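Student:
Attend to each token:
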Amino acid sequence: MDAHDLEYELPDALIAQEPPAARDGARLLVIDRDRGLLEHRRIVELPGLLVPSLLVVNDTRVLPARLFGRKPTGGRLEMLLVERLTSTESGTRETWTALARGTKALRPGLSVAIEGSEMQATLRALREGGEVELELIAAEGVRAAIGRSGRVPLPPYVRREPTAEDLERYQTVFAASEGSVAAPTAGLHFSAELLEALGKAGHRIARVTLHVGPGTFAPLRAEDLSQHRMHAEKYEIPHETTQAILAARSEGRPVVAIGTTVCRTLESAVDEEGRIAAGSGETALFIRPPYRFRAIDALLTNFHLPRSTLLALVMAFGGTESIRAAYEEAVRERYRFYSYGDAMLIRAARHARSA
């Protein structure tokens, strides 16, 4: 597979700019992985679309990671925090990596006043690709200052400023462990009511944490996919989750990854016999065709950008031609695409609940 195999035409009007009115209000395109058949359903129907399963979700919490600062010259600087490197015990001084716009005029030692707080940022180093290393200082604590001044890091294809609604809606109901710069978007579809319905239908929930970095969404720049390198992302798999997966296997329950982040986490920690190791780690796994999945049986995911590693993963799981046909159908039927858009469920026929 080359990068051009991941291209498709999408009208701008189909890129969702707002979340659906209700968390569980999205449409759902169901793909029969064995036969390539398609069904048009809705997220609220999910409990009845699968035999009793183990649904694994990502409980990362999105950091209000977009900061704006003023340079001594008065110029404005936009920064997206990526990863905390160090912190003092008091939390008043931290170092971070960040992506900065307009790095040509930046130099080590530059001091920036962060808008909306008393926090100061000092540029410590310039890296490749617009990445910088910052030292952040705030008397109230850096984390509190980020919460005060940071904005929701909506993806660039959402062409508007974030609102108060985004503070809630660009966060899943599972969000617990803060550290992501983007939401695990498949999880955005779940509401308290949907979780209750899933429980009544015999489904179970387990959790992992993968802190989503900007590298997950970085476009492919090389035509040869073997030349693309993923940024490493930190994950944690609780012992309770590995035990839940073992129990699901013994009971014949499918393991359903709620999103590509869950898929990559589990596939990064699985051995040849399908055993998943609990604990913390980092993954730079780039899943693309051909790939043998050992950890998951079904996948719930949103529609992804062309020429993206996420679309390559979905094609590896659902089949290149089946997914290409599904995307064409979704465009014809005016599905909503990307983070705030609709979803697809890729399952095997044997995992469908009988009527």
Notes: Residues 239-251 form the longest helix (13 residues).
